[in-house]
Amino acid sequence: MGGVNQNAPNPGAASVPPNRSTSLLTDMYELTMLQAALRDGTAHRQCTFEVFARRLPNERRYGVVAGTARVLRAVRDFVFTEDQLSHLEFLDEESKEFLRNYRFTGQIDGYREGDLYFPYSPLLTVRGTFAECVILETVILSIMNADSAIASAAARMVTAADGRPIIEMGSRRTHEYAAVTASRAAYLAGFTATSNLEASHRYGIPASGTAAHAWTLLHINEDGTPNEEAAFRSQIDSLGVDTTLLVDTYDITQGVKTAIEVAGPELGGVRIDSGDLGAVTRRVRRQLDDLGAHNTRIVVSSDLDEFAIAGLRGDPVDVYGVGTSVVTGSGAPTASMVYKLVEVDGHTVAKRSRGKGMTGGTKQAVRTYRSSGVAVEELVFPFGAEAPDTGHLSSTQLTVPLMRDGVAVDGLPSLEESRAYLADQLLTLPWEGLALSRDEPAIGTRFVGFPE
Q: 19: pLDDT confidence band, cut at 50, 70 and 90?
């Protein structure tokens, strides 16, 4: 599938088409800081910026790192065209000349896409001069905050579905291009398909969809009365008996009866988009079985989130369709990540504002595990130092190279590989870490080797 290759960036700034530039996906103050730094001589100090979250949204037990591949692509495409520069009238000529020649040439390390994270996990470290790193803040955060929020919510829904497929169908509930990247984040988290064709084309995600209520309503008799049978028959003629018929436009019981009369007992599925889904699906399953349609799947939608999905776990639902709640991060539309300066010319720096304290210095991290494979904690330690002794616990390196000298490292995982990696990581959480209720993070984050 052609779109999958977009998840393995092949940076080369000179080849970036002008209309692909990400450089104005930024805030004005980043460029005003750049101008002041060029004037006072601090622009070329060697710095480290770090992406982390102080807390998990809605007191969830874990977060999912998502958007890493998109970040690397955005950094590659962060170049300024003459048209863009002409718009930056508030900058002096020295600053414009710097931006005219700008290419990120620094280093990026961080957690793999699809990894889990917790408060203060050092998710991304960006190293280079102040000038080249500071102007990347907004584009990096806008990608990681949105994608991680959606992937984190979607992963909880996948857990609640307990192995049953979920289709992402939230395109009409968000910005048209946010819908595409939301589909990607949901698929990373374990959703099986998307209704969004641009997402399917761009990222190779399986597409899914049949018909809306408008299709059934379109089919009426000459006297204006509904003709549900004609709608079903036309859909079957076009798409075959393996299609899914939407049976709740009028009366669900009659809709199911008509669907099987038209398609026969080998009908692929029926979809229900309204009502008390638990009670309705139990009744529909009995009806389908009585009609001999034992293999006809029941697909449900209608404002589902992880809690509604969990509530339907004991009911005869075969496939879930999720829209609004996944593209809005199920009530947490941002992961609340920040991008902070933590080191300047080898010196540790840290913000100490009340409620926003942090540990300075360039960092890396490992995660420790019991012999059973269950995660215990994250250990964060200075970048370049040896990993701390974990005793009888095994450990894995969380911080890996992502970009060297402005070029993405070879062998970055594809979307499919990151998806499989996340599924494996979820299995390492303590059992309480998969609970949907609000509580403490599933594992703690401990800093080792930093000054008190």
A: low
Strands 46-53 and 116-117: unpaired
The residues spanned by each domain of the chain are 28-150+335-447, 159-328
Mean pLDDT of 198-203: 98
Please tell me the CATH code under which domain 28-150+335-447 is placed.
Answer: 3.20.140.10
Q: Residue 63: which pLDDT band, with cuts at 50, 70 and 90? A: very high
Each residue's pLDDT tens digit, 293-335: 999 999 999 899 999 999 999 999 999 999 999 999 999 999 9
Structure pTM? Answer: 0.93
Q: Does 6 or 92 have the greater pLDDT score?
A: 92
pLDDT digits (tens, 9 = 90+) for 151-174: 999 999 999 999 999 999 999 999
Superfamily of domain 159-328: Aldolase class I (3.20.20.70)
